[in-house]
């Protein structure tokens, strides 16, 4: 696939790159230390395959402002946010290239899942706690099962070997185990509130809910502190552990140069963030009507649909590098984004809910908690040997489909939380 022309003959298109993961300082091409899971982003030429969706942005704003049919408002704004997420990642990349490794890593850690965060804050403000929790769980599961499964499947098929002498793709088992340990801890942070809620007196509902809020807020603070320590671990003290991922990122993006100045990129970042917030406002506002008029539940919307909005471009990136046999980089996209959601975004939303008076907690329903814990367990066993093949990819994809079907079969309101007095 030819690279975009970066000379003066034809100006670079804003979406000529596929924002995915791992932005590296271009001054350290081949042996730069790795940083946080989103602090490196590779840039893969893609021919602007989501450019046509940008027309949905003004259409979505008009549809919401003129109170069109809820299905139309939801659908148009859903597709509008997908290219905006790609542009947001692109602008973040451009700024990070000027900031260097550490500051670039921190910037990408902040904006890595900006779309999911914006949509969730809008939903949280509207009291759509079920949607927020399902979208956080869905983002994690889509990365752990769907994205990683596709990487293992397609990468394994391309590099499967011939005549029965099957080969496997390899990656750093030590890094995978470290990140999976963090995911196991995050699953424990959901299991404990669910277990506490189950054992408390069933007749003291208000006291139970208050206890869960206290536990959730305390746990959220601890998880955020752990996330900061994890950033230091990757960015500073143990960056050498991620050298394989860093070198693969440098190889993919070799020769790439910034296409926008820092001021222009900052303006784009601000403008696109505002547009995402507007589209998210209309998208979230139409969810109740969608649920009432269709058989789709809020849990399914949060688990399956909303994660697609912010992660479509990144998912494609992971598969592309898996096809190139750069599995450390592919896993960095998948597991790294999951860690950011689990240790960064979700506890941050608990704190935001605390501030704005919404009872956002880490108490997920039993089924959600079990689905998360089982997924982390399966992924941990899958990556522990540092090898992957297409059979393991099919296994992960199969588990994701099973969970998705289960959420689709769940009646609307099944995961509604009882009101909590704050």
UniProtKB/TrEMBL annotation:
Query: Would you say which domain of life the source belongs to?
Result: Eukaryota
Q: Which GO terms describe its molecular function?
A: calcium:proton antiporter activity
Q: Which organism is it from?
A: Ustilaginoidea virens
Q: Output the Pfam families linked to this UniProt entry.
A: Na_Ca_ex
Subcellular location per the Swiss-Prot or TrEMBL entry: Endomembrane system; Vacuole membrane
Example GO CC term: the record gives: endomembrane system
This one is known as Vacuolar calcium ion transporter
Q: Does the keyword Iron apply?
A: no
**NCBIfam families, sorted:** caca2 (TIGR00846), cax (TIGR00378)
């Amino acid at each position: 696939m030819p690279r975009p022309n970066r000379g003066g003959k034809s100006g670079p298109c804003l979406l000529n790159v596929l924002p995915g993961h791992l932005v590296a300082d271009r001054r350290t091409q081949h042996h730069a230390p790795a940083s946080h899971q989103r602090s490196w982003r590779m840039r893969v030429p893609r021919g602007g395959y989501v450019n046509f969706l940008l027309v949905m942005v003004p259409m979505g704003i008009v549809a919401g402002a003129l109170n069109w049919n809820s299905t139309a408002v939801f659908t148009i704004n859903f597709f509008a946010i997908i290219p905006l997420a790609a542009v947001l990642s692109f602008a973040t990349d451009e700024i990070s290239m000027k900031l260097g490794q550490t500051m670039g890593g921190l910037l990408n850690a902040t904006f890595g899942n900006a779309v999911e965060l914006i949509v969730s804050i809008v939903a949280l403000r509207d009291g759509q706690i079920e949607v927020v929790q399902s979208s956080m769980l869905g983002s994690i599961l889509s990365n752990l099962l769907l994205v990683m499964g596709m990487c293992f499947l397609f990468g394994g098929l391309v590099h499967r070997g011939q005549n029965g002498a099957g080969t496997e793709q390899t990656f750093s088992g030590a890094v995978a185990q470290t990140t999976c340990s963090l995911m196991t801890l995050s699953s424990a942070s959901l299991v404990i509130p669910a277990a506490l809620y189950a054992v408390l007196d069933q007749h003291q509902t208000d006291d139970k809910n208050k206890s869960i809020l206290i536990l959730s807020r305390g746990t959220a603070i601890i998880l955020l502190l752990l996330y900061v320590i994890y950033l230091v671990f990757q960015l500073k003290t143990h960056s050498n552990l991620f050298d394989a991922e860093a070198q693969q990122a440098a190889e993919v993006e070799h020769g790439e140069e910034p296409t926008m100045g820092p001021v222009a990129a900052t303006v784009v970042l601000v403008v696109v963030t505002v547009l995402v917030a507007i589209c998210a406002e209309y998208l979230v506002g139409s969810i109740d009507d969608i649920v009432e008029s269709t058989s789709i539940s809020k849990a399914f919307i949060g688990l399956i649909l909303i994660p697609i909005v912010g992660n479509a471009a990144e998912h494609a990136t992971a598969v592309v590098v898996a096809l190139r046999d750069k599995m450390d980089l592919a896993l960095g996209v998948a597991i790294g984004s999951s860690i950011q959601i689990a240790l960064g975004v979700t506890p941050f939303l608990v704190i935001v809910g605390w501030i704005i008076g919404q009872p956002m907690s880490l108490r997920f329903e039993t089924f959600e908690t079990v689905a998360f814990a089982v997924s982390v367990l399966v992924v941990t066993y899958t990556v522990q040997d540092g090898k992957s093949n297409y059979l393991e990819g099919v296994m992960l994809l199969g588990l994701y489909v099973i969970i998705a079907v289960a959420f689709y079969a769940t009646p609307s309101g099944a995961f509604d939380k009882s009101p909590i007095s704050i």
